[in-house]
Design brief:
Layout lengths: L1 E5 L2 E2 L5 E3 L5 E8 L5 E4 L5 E8 L5 E4 L8 E7 L4 E4 L4 E2 L3 E5 L4 E4 L4 E2 L4 E3 L21 E3 L4 E2 L4 E3 L3 E2 L4 E2 L4 E2 L8 E3 L4 E4 L57 H24 L1
Parallel strand pairs: 3-5, 4-6, 5-7, 6-8, 7-9, 8-11, 9-12, 10-13, 11-14, 12-15, 13-16, 14-17, 15-18, 16-19, 17-20, 19-21
Antiparallel strand pairs: 1-4, 2-3, 21-22
The structure holds coenzyme A.
Length: 275
Amino acid sequence: MKTVPLAPYEDDEGNRIEYTGPPSEAVQITFRGRDNVARIHADAHTRSLQVDFNASNGTFELGANPKRRGFAAQVRVGQDATVRVRDGVSATAKVVISAVEGVTVDIGEDTMFASQNQVRADDGHPIFDVRTGERINLARSIHIGAHTWLGWGSIVLGGVEIGEGTVVGANSIVTRSLPNNVIAVGSPAVVVRTDIAWERPHLGLTEPFYKPHSSTVKKSKYWRRTDPEFSADHLVEAHPPTVRPQRPVSTARRSVTRARRLAGRLRNALADRTG
Ligand SMILES: CC(C)(COP(=O)(O)OP(=O)(O)OC[C@H]1O[C@@H](n2cnc3c(N)ncnc32)[C@H](O)[C@@H]1OP(=O)(O)O)[C@@H](O)C(=O)NCCC(=O)NCCS
């Protein structure tokens, strides 16, 4: 096992770091096994990054990001696994990312992590069915769409795809796929609002210090309506909001009602088509 700081590197086992930027002690890469590749953009800015290649034939890629943004993570890359962090991804504190057993974690451009986030394509240890001996918790790939915002403490688990422009609320655990441009909250995370867009300017630090309307910010390219074709199973219908404390009808509730109506319409349309 060797741990090396960020700089061009190659060893006798075929492990290598592909990088043309300045050396950085803030990035530490550990190689066990062989034929692992860390491909890091010359303009990747990181405050603190640890990449552990646990076995062989793993790939880690990190795209470019502005210095003021910065990315920080603790990454595990297992046998034949890939972790890809695309351009412009930011993290307030270290994100824990794990991929093993040949799966991929793909984090879309301009994704924003808060603090205490985890993206786990595997559970770290195997669980088996005692009757059959079959593994019940196989590692599964994760795809996080561009311009996703993962709120404080939120966790994304294996098999999940998140559509572009979506917001995951604080302390939420995403166990099922989510469509684009929604807010999803809770554990498991469910959609509570559709047709939303979020922007990066900080509420406290960026003028104007009151931002009551989108005219106060520069709109990104991620302003889209939520895809109505996205499988209705992932909308609140699958986890009825009756488990939540009841409140007077709010905008959020109206969105939930709308999402449920949408789910019903999709189901009827599908029944008509198949019936
Ligand atoms: C999700 C969030 C962005 C707000 O979204 P919102 O649409 O304004 O949310 P609302 O307050 O209207 O709540 C909508 C519903 O979701 C629920 N909800 C909101 N946030 C929730 C959360 N994190 N976990 C569980 N439920 C939550 C509300 O109780 C409400 O449910 P109800 O209508 O059944 O009562 C916000 O709640 C949040 O999590 N903020 C944290 C952001 C963060 O982590 N910032 C760190 C800096 S990057």
